[in-house]
Write a structure and sequence with these properties.
CATH class of the largest domain in chain A: Alpha Beta
Oligomer: heterodimer
Strand content of chain B: under 5%
Distance between the termini of chain B: 15 Å
Distance between the termini of chain A: 15 Å
Strand order of the largest sheet of chain A: 3-2-1-4-5-6
Structural class of chain B: mainly alpha
Number of strands of chain B: 0
Shape of chain A: elongated
Number of helices of chain A: 13
Strand content of chain A: 5-15%
Number of strands of chain A: 6
Order of helices and strands of chain B: HHHHHH
Order of helices and strands of chain A: HHHEHEHEHHHEHEHEHHH
Largest sheet of chain B: none
Helix content of chain A: 55-70%
Radius of gyration of chain A: 22 Å
């Protein structure tokens, strides 16, 4: 049996092990591969930067805990960027499992860094079922869809929500998502109510979203961990995405190598298989 | 890093246990994996029921009726209850009233959403000028968009056999579709690797810190 046949019959668990090592190695020994900026990430950063200080923005946490490695750094970087400009932030989620608690934990964590006060500088509306109905309903009255915030406080008791009643009181919607809700923020809230939308999405979703950026339906896009690392670079606060990009690059090198070896083996053993 | 409390240590160790149990499936199926899987399924179902009860039934139905006197909300409430008639075969036909209402309203909302939010803006953005005036590069990109859109649409035109000019154009369409699949696959690989990175970072940094502090 030659080497190609041996490789062909290699137990897949060895590949899992190599993949694990390719991620662990750069985690221990930091390499610092450069993170190049894409025009879409810069567009999103510039859109937020162009908003007047103290503007009200809506930030969504439309992702499950499973996608946090990609999306959490986007949310943290977005909050840092917005609060650096002293913006008022209304957060919500359309994801039942994890979304409300992730939003609560992250906003409170970053708020502490900037000394922001709950109810005055930010409000977490929490979760409500049926996102299409929620998106349409918020256009009429935020309070009718979310009578209370995530903690159960009535919106009428929160100073920030005295002046934020509908989309008309919000300047920008920054959507961080790992699912189709991003499409609906664009097709409902941007298309029908005219609110500018920018998004940070998981890498799986990113190729589809470029069409919305190209069509002008979206103002900027962050795609996956790379997009998150770009935003961290733009905000000037490297975090977990920047730290993860070394491992990302190493894993990609390994996958490319394995694809090449696999194809080479396939063609070199083709003749033998025919025989 | 500041000193972790007992609860924080416990949370980190529990997360580490669940992660390692689930990863153990990559070696082979085992009891640790199954236990973690069942814990996840059970917790998710319980949490979801509680969340929907509080945020929808209490906040959107019961409170507005009792506190604000919005009695007309009883009507959608009844429609919701009627859905449960499906559980009794003899009365399952009653649930069709609710389903008809749901399907009718959903179809109407999605028709407008898809037309206004997806089809028209995307069609408009596909109708690009072949001479955008930004040099040869921009013209080339516009040409690629035009050829890509037309050839892909022709590939999905099945009312005539794909031979001759139609066949060649459809073949070009396949190439565009394949390139699109390649881009999607590349991004999907990146996404899955990112998830693994997140877990490895948790194990190395958070769990590692907890172990260091305990030792």
């Amino acid at each position: 049996m030659d080497i190609w046949q041996k490789l062909n019959e290699l137990d897949r668990r060895w590949i899992y092990f190599l993949m694990f090592l390719s991620i662990l190695f750069p985690t221990i020994f930091v390499i610092k591969f450069p993170v190049e900026l894409t025009p879409e990430a810069e567009q999103l950063y510039n859109a937020v930067e162009a908003l007047p200080d103290s503007s009200v923005v809506m930030l969504t946490f439309d992702y499950y805990a499973s996608a946090m490695a990609e999306t959490e750094p986007m949310s943290i970087a977005a909050l840092r960027h917005m609060w650096r400009k002293n913006m008022k932030i209304v957060t919500l989620t359309n994801i039942p499992l994890g979304g409300p608690t992730i939003a609560e934990r992250i906003t409170r964590q970053v708020a502490k860094e900037f000394g922001k006060v709950y109810g005055v500088d930010y409000v977490n509306l929490g979760y409500k079922a049926n996102y299409v109905a929620v998106m349409h309903g918020l256009a009429g009255s935020i309070e009718s869809i979310f009578p209370t915030d995530y903690s159960g406080t009535r919106l009428s008791e929160l100073p920030l929500m005295q002046k934020v009643k509908t989309y008309a009181d919000i300047k920008f919607l920054y959507c961080v998502a790992d699912n189709a809700t991003a499409d609906y923020w664009i097709s409902i809230v941007n298309a029908q109510y005219g609110l500018p939308v920018g998004a940070g999405v998981t890498a799986v979703m990113a190729p589809k979203m470029y069409a919305f950026v190209e069509a002008g339906q979206m103002t900027g896009l962050l795609g996956g961990m790379k997009g998150a690392a770009e935003y961290e670079k733009l905000v000037g606060a490297p975090g977990s995405a920047t730290r993860g990009m070394d491992a990302q690059s190493m894993a990609h090198f390994l996958i490319i190598f394995l694809v090449m070896v696999g194809n080479l083996g396939f063609f070199l053993t083709k003749k033998k298989r025919k025989v | 890093m500041e000193s972790l409390s007992f609860i924080e240590h416990f949370q980190i160790w529990l997360r580490a246990y669940l992660i390692l149990s689930l990863f153990s499936f990559m070696y082979k199926d085992n009891r640790f994996y199954k236990l973690s899987e069942h814990i996840f399924a059970g917790l998710s179902a319980g949490y979801y029921v509680g969340l929907i009860w509080q945020t929808v039934i209490i906040q959107q139905l019961i409170n507005p009726i009792y506190d604000d006197g919005r009695w007309w909300l009883i009507l959608p409430g009844i429609l919701g209850v009627l859905m449960f008639a499906r559980l009794i075969p003899k009365w399952s036909w009653i649930s069709r009233t609710s389903l008809a209402f749901y399907m009718g309203s959903t179809a109407g909302i999605y028709l407008i959403t898809n037309l206004h939010g997806f089809i028209l803006p995307q069609a408009v953005s596909s109708m690009v000028s072949l001479n955008p005036g930004n040099g040869f590069g921009a013209t080339l990109l516009a040409l690629i968009i035009v050829i890509g859109v037309i050839s892909t649409l022709i590939y999905f035109y099945f009312s005539k056999e794909h031979t001759g000019f139609l066949g060649v154009t459809a073949r070009v369409g396949i190439w565009f579709i394949m390139i699109s699949f390649g881009a999607h696959f590349g991004y999907t690989v990146m996404a899955r690797v990112s998830l693994l990175i997140g877990r490895v970072h948790f194990l190395y940094f958070d769990w590692g810190e907890s172990i260091r502090q305990i030792l």
